[in-house]
């Protein structure tokens, strides 16, 4: 092996891109700095990146301990994102197992149909789904959002692609030991699929957490709001107080930002597998 | 494989003289495992699509209840093409796609190529450019709306200092609102494009570049003659998904401008939202939904057709 030479061109380019990436992230830096400022200081120009008059605690209190607390929106978002993610994983893993390892009549048809369903844009069926949810008596409930979010032919496809690669010997060994199909799925297939389940789960969690359109249409009561709707609510209440709005934005972004920084490999892998043809 | 055959035989031996042979059990299991997904798809995607086609032929104000449904044939579709707001939305949407898709893809492929071939600490750059993508669209919209503030915002303060006497009023300016939103959209999506292009580039064999280097090809020549052609499938995938998502843009527009000022930033999905969920004109909103669906189908099939002709690897 040769020792990698440090190329001057690359060093310069890396420094240049480093500067560019910081410039790229400036809006988020501005958000963080403004969340800690007084309203007056938010607007000073040139921008005061480090606040002179720290107002972090006051803004924090307005967002988290006001009449309507962000804490409530958090609880709702965590609940919906967790349950939807879990439900999607179960439904998609079951379907993925059937489509990858079981032989049954109509399998090919089901698979092609599912690939076709992927093309139906959610936005095109908003109206009828809203009417259906109303008729079912689920309007303005979290159940409506979970129900809407738990079926994904896209995730099923990703899981199926992974499960096809699981060795049949392992499944047959379990069958010889007397395991039924459900048992094979639960004790062999699921544990072996852990990497893909984690990847898909994180992506689904992020999508659900950030979903704005679904809750906007299905929810009405403020106490059921998720974080994106809570942002909307804050905009109506404090729209002109930017320091408070930035504190709310920060609160909306922080959990996913931390999750992303901790699990960056998983998230980036999850995003890339969709783009590489299977 | 003989081992495989023995296993199969052993399993078959267990099945003797029972109705629930292995094949029957597998059939049943297959259907049971697929059932939740299939039912969910039928109820939440296929049925609504057909239902909305039916609705699009009616005039129905939800407030009036089921008895208020009136069949009006194709009148909704006829109205669409006389509806200035819808036509504006359609025009804006096409402009939005034309403005954002080539820009993100071009920036994406160039940035990805530089990160892939030229930079140290690649992982840092992947993460840095990807951060906006995982942020809540609503939250980043709130940040940008402050940056865009017409009189006090940092952007216009900077422009004034640079000598622009009368900078655009961005989100509250009829001629700038859509462009201002496009900038946010590109900013948020760029990282996604970079990640996908990088994944594509990772699949290009290094030997190709080594051979080209020996032949004396410059970096830019290598990019044009090796990277771009080899990225065919990735580019195809990104083109389809980016065009489709640009036709579905909604969150930013709803949160920032409500399609305004004066419908200057409205798009198809926003009009569906306004007609369906604010005016409760379910039939009319469904007609719009079908137009959206047809546009997406058209885009997908067009790209498929051109793809199957051009790119073969």
Automatic annotation (TrEMBL), chain A:
The chain crosses the membrane at residues 80-99, 111-131, 143-163, 184-207, 238-263. GO terms for biological process: transmembrane transport. It is found in: Cell membrane. One of its GO terms (cellular component) is plasma membrane. It is a multi-pass membrane protein. Keywords: Cell membrane, Membrane, Transmembrane, Transmembrane helix, Transport. PROSITE patterns: ABC_TM1 (PS50928). The keyword Membrane applies. Residues 74-263 form the ABC transmembrane type-1 domain. The keyword Kinase does not apply. It comes from the Bacteria. Belongs to the binding-protein-dependent transport system permease family. This is Carbohydrate ABC transporter permease.
TrEMBL record, chain B:
InterPro entries: ABC_transporter_permease, MetI-like, MetI-like_sf. Residues 90-303 form the ABC transmembrane type-1 domain. It is found in: Cell membrane. Pfam families: BPD_transp_1. It is a multi-pass membrane protein. The chain crosses the membrane at residues 28-51, 94-115, 127-147, 176-199, 230-250, 287-305. Keywords: Cell membrane, Membrane, Transmembrane, Transmembrane helix, Transport. Belongs to the binding-protein-dependent transport system permease family. Its main location: membrane. The keyword S-adenosyl-L-methionine does not apply. One of its GO terms (cellular component) is plasma membrane. GO terms for biological process: transmembrane transport. The keyword Metal-binding does not apply. This is Sugar ABC transporter permease. It comes from Paenibacillus rhizophilus.
């Amino acid at each position: 092996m040769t020792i990698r030479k440090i190329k001057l061109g690359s060093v310069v380019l890396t420094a240049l891109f480093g500067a560019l990436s910081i410039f790229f992230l400036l809006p988020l830096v501005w958000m963080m700095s403004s969340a800690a400022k007084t309203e007056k200081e938010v607007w000073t120009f040139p921008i005061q990146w480090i606040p002179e008059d720290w107002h972090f605690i006051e803004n924090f209190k307005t967002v988290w301990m006001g009449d309507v607390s962000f804490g409530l929106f958090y609880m709702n978002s965590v609940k919906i994102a967790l349950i939807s993610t879990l439900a999607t994983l179960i439904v998609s893993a079951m379907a993925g197992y059937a489509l990858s390892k079981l032989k049954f009549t109509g399998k090919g048809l089901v698979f092609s149909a599912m690939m076709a369903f992927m093309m139906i844009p959610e936005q095109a069926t908003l109206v009828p789904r809203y009417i259906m949810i109303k008729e079912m008596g689920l309007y303005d409930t979290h159940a409506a959002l979970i129900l809407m979010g738990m079926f994904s032919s896209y995730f099923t496809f990703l899981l199926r692609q992974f499960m096809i690669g699981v060795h049949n010997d392992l499944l047959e060994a379990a069958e010889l030991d007397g395991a039924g199909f459900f048992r094979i799925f639960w004790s062999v297939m699921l544990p072996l699929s852990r990497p893909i389940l984690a990847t898909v789960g994180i992506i689904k969690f992020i999508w659900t957490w950030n979903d704005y359109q679904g809750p906007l249409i299905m929810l009405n009561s403020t106490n059921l709001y998720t974080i994106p709707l809570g942002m909307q609510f804050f905009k109506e209440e404090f729209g002109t107080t930017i320091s408070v709005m930035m504190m709310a934005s920060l609160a909306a972004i922080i959990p996913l930002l931390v999750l992303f920084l901790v699990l960056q490999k998983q998230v980036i892998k999850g995003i890339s597998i969709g783009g590489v043809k299977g | 494989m003989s081992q495989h055959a023995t296993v199969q035989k052993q399993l078959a031996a267990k099945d003797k003289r029972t109705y629930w042979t292995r094949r029957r059990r597998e059939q049943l299991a297959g259907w049971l495992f697929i059932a939740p997904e299939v039912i969910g798809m039928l109820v939440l995607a296929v049925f609504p699509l057909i239902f909305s086609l039916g609705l699009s032929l009616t005039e129905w104000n939800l407030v009036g209840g089921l008895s208020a449904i009136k069949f009006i044939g194709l009148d909704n579709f006829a109205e669409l093409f006389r509806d200035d707001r819808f036509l504006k939305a359609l025009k804006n949407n096409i402009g939005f796609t034309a403005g954002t898709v080539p820009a993100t893809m071009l920036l994406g492929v160039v940035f990805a190529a530089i990160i892939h071939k030229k930079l140290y600490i690649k992982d840092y750059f992947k993460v840095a450019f990807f951060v906006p993508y995982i942020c809540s669209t609503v939250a980043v919209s709130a940040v940008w709306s402050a940056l865009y503030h017409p009189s006090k915002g940092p952007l216009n303060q900077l422009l004034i200092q640079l000598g622009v006497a009368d900078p655009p009023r961005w989100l509250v300016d009829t001629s700038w609102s859509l462009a201002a939103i496009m900038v946010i959209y590109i900013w948020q999506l760029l990282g996604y494009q970079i990640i996908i292009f990088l994944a594509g580039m990772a699949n290009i064999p290094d030997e190709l570049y080594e051979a080209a280097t020996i032949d004396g090809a410059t970096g830019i020549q290598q990019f044009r003659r090796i990277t771009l052609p080899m990225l065919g499938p990735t580019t195809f995938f990104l083109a389809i998904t980016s065009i489709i998502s640009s036709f579905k843009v909604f969150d930013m527009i709803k949160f920032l401008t409500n399609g305004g000022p004066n419908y200057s930033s409205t798009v198809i999905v926003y009009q569906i939202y306004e007609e369906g969920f604010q005016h409760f004109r379910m039939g009319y909103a469904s007609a719009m939904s079908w137009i959206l669906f047809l546009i997406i189908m058209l885009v997908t099939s067009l790209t498929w057709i051109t793809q199957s002709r051009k790119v073969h690897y």
